[in-house]
Amino acid sequence: MDKIIVRGGKRLEGEVNISTAKNSVLPIIAASILSGDKCIIESAPMLEDVFVISDVLRTISTEIDIDSKTNRILIDSSNIKDCEASSELVKKMRASFLIMGAMISRFGKFRLSLPGGCNIGTRPIDLHLKGFSALGAEVSVGHGYVEAQAKKLIGNKIYLDFPSVGATENIMMAAVMAEGETTIENAAEEPEIEDLAKFLNSMGANIIGAGSGTIHIIGVKNLKGTTHKPIYDRIEAGTFMTAAAITRSKIKINGIDERHLKPVIAKLTEAGVNIKIEGNSMVIDGDRDLKPIDIKTMPYPGFPTDMQSQLSGLLCTVHGTSIITETIFENRFMHASEMKRMGANIKIDGRSAVIEGVDRLTGAEVRATDLRAGAALVLCGLAAEGETEVTDIYHVDRGYVNIEKKLKGLGADIERAKM
Ligand code: UD1
């Protein structure tokens, strides 16, 4: 297992390139099995999660060729035979459950191990299952499996009790070839959903309104192969924005879409960071006297829960009191106890964290408890006095392409080592 060692205190400078989005590419890989033709994903991020979902698909006889030199993924699902995927891999990554909708749509039945994922909350799948049932599938859960089958899926009106990203995507994939029209109301509005719809439409689907709270899916008879480049990763961009802020540095970030970063830009600006957008690039200047801020995570376009840990790390270094409220996941403050080992002053009260900024964080051995918590600890290490070792870095590798190389390119004193 790897760890990352950071010697803090260096200012960052220069430019960094953002990869395409993990949360776009995973549902897109799942969706590519809908047609049986070949699909190509260009500029794909070479991430652990991408390798895991590819391995899950290989267990059901999908051929996947990942070329890490050209960042191209070729998916050929013409030979899928098995209508069951039971694997430790499915338990390892919650996004594996995204193949369920596509498989029911194409084959009318599928049986899958119940998903696992980051340890940030209970993360049920009831909304996904309600959606499949509304489309006419018979769904059962038992013995660690979910099973769904339907002679024919029929479009319906589906209201989501909560705008779940995964449920919106899974239902969209299940509905693309259903008979008639499906409407998803209170759908998640994340940009990655719009990107998935763009991919599906280029396969021949008829989806209108993705990216808004109401999505209409008019069923089509069949889909064909396509080629697609996913959108930039707004969370990776936000993480590098926070790296500039926490080290009070000025850097340029290439590969951003301002529209997708609005809540992060708003909050960092409120804290006193200076941000200038130039097309698909941003110059971010954190070399300022920063102010404490309050943050509440919300479904998009609210402040993303996936940026909460990183901003918490930043606010540990900003004098004054900041309050963070997490409304999406119930167990997403695991970074707090690790940050305390670095001298942070954080008190957790239910779904809120009260942070008092300290003069300096101090290097320590800390553990990445989940993906974004791990990234946040690396950021804290950049600002801390002395050496920080972040262990269990495999969590970070799930969602960041070469995080230490990108930070080193900006001048950070950082390296990867074996544990
Ligand atoms: C996706 C993202 C993840 C991000 C999250 C919230 C991917 C691969 N992952 O995860 O990075 O943190 O959105 O922005 O895109 N819920 C239910 N029942 C369900 C489904 C969800 O109660 O059937 C609840 C969850 O427990 C959670 C909330 O809804 O409290 C949000 O989950 P959801 O939007 O589904 O997140 P994911 O799709 O798992």
TrEMBL record:
<dbReference type="InterPro" id="IPR005750">
    <property type="entry name" value="UDP_GlcNAc_COvinyl_MurA"/>
</dbReference>
<dbReference type="GO" id="GO:0008360">
    <property type="term" value="P:regulation of cell shape"/>
</dbReference>
<dbReference type="InterPro" id="IPR050068">
    <property type="entry name" value="MurA_subfamily"/>
</dbReference>
<feature type="binding site">
    <location>
        <begin position="123"/>
        <end position="127"/>
    </location>
    <ligand>
        <name>UDP-N-acetyl-alpha-D-glucosamine</name>
    </ligand>
</feature>
<comment type="similarity">
    <text>Belongs to the EPSP synthase family. MurA subfamily.</text>
</comment>
<keyword id="KW-0808">Transferase</keyword>
<dbReference type="GO" id="GO:0019277">
    <property type="term" value="P:UDP-N-acetylgalactosamine biosynthetic process"/>
</dbReference>
<feature type="modified residue" description="2-(S-cysteinyl)pyruvic acid O-phosphothioketal">
    <location>
        <position position="118"/>
    </location>
</feature>
<feature type="binding site">
    <location>
        <position position="94"/>
    </location>
    <ligand>
        <name>UDP-N-acetyl-alpha-D-glucosamine</name>
    </ligand>
</feature>
<feature type="domain" description="Enolpyruvate transferase">
    <location>
        <begin position="6"/>
        <end position="407"/>
    </location>
</feature>
<dbReference type="Pfam" id="PF00275">
    <property type="entry name" value="EPSP_synthase"/>
</dbReference>
<comment type="pathway">
    <text>Cell wall biogenesis; peptidoglycan biosynthesis.</text>
</comment>
<keyword id="KW-0670">Pyruvate</keyword>
<keyword id="KW-0131">Cell cycle</keyword>
<feature type="binding site">
    <location>
        <position position="306"/>
    </location>
    <ligand>
        <name>UDP-N-acetyl-alpha-D-glucosamine</name>
    </ligand>
</feature>
<dbReference type="GO" id="GO:0009252">
    <property type="term" value="P:peptidoglycan biosynthetic process"/>
</dbReference>
<keyword id="KW-0132">Cell division</keyword>
<feature type="binding site">
    <location>
        <begin position="22"/>
        <end position="23"/>
    </location>
    <ligand>
        <name>phosphoenolpyruvate</name>
    </ligand>
</feature>
<protein>
    <recommendedName>
        <fullName>UDP-N-acetylglucosamine 1-carboxyvinyltransferase</fullName>
        <ecNumber>2.5.1.7</ecNumber>
    </recommendedName>
</protein>
<keyword id="KW-0963">Cytoplasm</keyword>
<dbReference type="InterPro" id="IPR036968">
    <property type="entry name" value="Enolpyruvate_Tfrase_sf"/>
</dbReference>
<dbReference type="GO" id="GO:0008760">
    <property type="term" value="F:UDP-N-acetylglucosamine 1-carboxyvinyltransferase activity"/>
</dbReference>
<dbReference type="GO" id="GO:0005737">
    <property type="term" value="C:cytoplasm"/>
</dbReference>
<feature type="active site" description="Proton donor">
    <location>
        <position position="118"/>
    </location>
</feature>
<dbReference type="InterPro" id="IPR001986">
    <property type="entry name" value="Enolpyruvate_Tfrase_dom"/>
</dbReference>
<keyword id="KW-0961">Cell wall biogenesis/degradation</keyword>
<comment type="function">
    <text>Cell wall formation. Adds enolpyruvyl to UDP-N-acetylglucosamine.</text>
</comment>
<keyword id="KW-0133">Cell shape</keyword>
<dbReference type="GO" id="GO:0071555">
    <property type="term" value="P:cell wall organization"/>
</dbReference>
<dbReference type="InterPro" id="IPR013792">
    <property type="entry name" value="RNA3'P_cycl/enolpyr_Trfase_a/b"/>
</dbReference>
<dbReference type="GO" id="GO:0051301">
    <property type="term" value="P:cell division"/>
</dbReference>
<feature type="binding site">
    <location>
        <position position="328"/>
    </location>
    <ligand>
        <name>UDP-N-acetyl-alpha-D-glucosamine</name>
    </ligand>
</feature>
<keyword id="KW-0573">Peptidoglycan synthesis</keyword>
